[in-house]
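Example record for the data management plan.
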Amino acid sequence: MSRPLLVCAVALLAAACTRVVEGAAAPASGPLGGPSGVDVDAILLDQSRMRAITGAGNDLTIIPSMDGKQLVDVDSLAATVPAPCRFVYADTAAFGPDVEQFHKTTFQAPPKGALISEGAAGYRDAGAARRSFDTLVASVDDCAATSAGRLLVGEHSADEDSLRTRPGECGRDYRVKSMVLLEVTYCGFPESVPDIVMTNITAKVPG
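Corresponding structural encoding:
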């Protein structure tokens, strides 16, 4: 595994898993708020669909410790990067303080040395989701301007509803629709795979 892929894979894992750095990662403090108007569990794709999209078949499995409904911050790693880059290691920085529902699942395909995760945050209304998205876009821009930007953000672009970062051979895609902010992160899959995953998730968001 090349160094850019290794670094990005570590970032992907650390941002989603409470056990990558022992004792360092923990659910973000405080419970989530009341239920949003969208069931985020119903939006995410099931394992069979993810297997079909990735082409990994039965080799693609859910990492048990990385399937959760709590925002997770890896504070020990977030503290090592410039403040605008904390979103790479901290769900609270990526999705903001107004999340009312959340679910993120990470899959692995060991024969391919590949990882992919899908996440959805539900908010009380579309305005709250939009504000979180706009804040994230600003964070990515600010992170890109720091000394860590090339490693953690790489090439990046945003439009009214979507955000994309491509550090090395990995990437992150975000999309806001209605009262939901979606995230797909990956390492080791072709770029077309996260695009298809995001398109399929977005199609399941009402509104």
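Summary line stored alongside the record: The CA atoms of residues 17 and 66 lie 5 Å apart.
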